Amino acid sequence: MTLQHLKIDKTWALFLDRDGVINRRIVGDYVKTWDQLGFLPGVTTALKQFNAIFGTIVVVSNQQGVGKGLMTEKDVIAIHDRMIIEIADSGGRLDAVYFSPHLQSTGSLMRKPNIGMALKARKQFQEINFKRSLMVGDSLSDMIFGKRVGMKTVMISSDSQPAKQYSRLIDFIYPDLLKLSCEL
Q: Could you tell me the CATH superfamily of domain 3-183?
């Protein structure tokens, strides 16, 4: 099956992970300020294209740096507010950004791969149907999150090996958001 076979239109929702999908992932650290959030190449163009395709676009992001005391929830919200503005200024759209400040060790329902952020999004946007949703992420926890609620999953990776190894979790694999947006 290809993405075109899904017949994606405004009845679909797009769920995006943040770090490693929208912006550069800082290995061994966290994006703690706006200056550290560098958009990946082509992201704003892709989000502009997604704006014309999807009815709802949300970000779901684990931000355990808050739980570790490295930044505050207010810091993360400020980054997200500026990200929404920058994307809108480029013709794109994010309808909401949800994040989990919880440490992985807490097992919080809000932390991916658990489904709390998906349920929160559907509560806010009642038109969301998980069977008509894509989860785009760069980690297995993103893929598990998507599958747990019945979404189609897209792994952002330049390596096709994860798709072969985890074929039950990963429906599609693309090197970046721009390549994905060109397929829709």
A: HAD superfamily/HAD-like (3.40.50.1000)
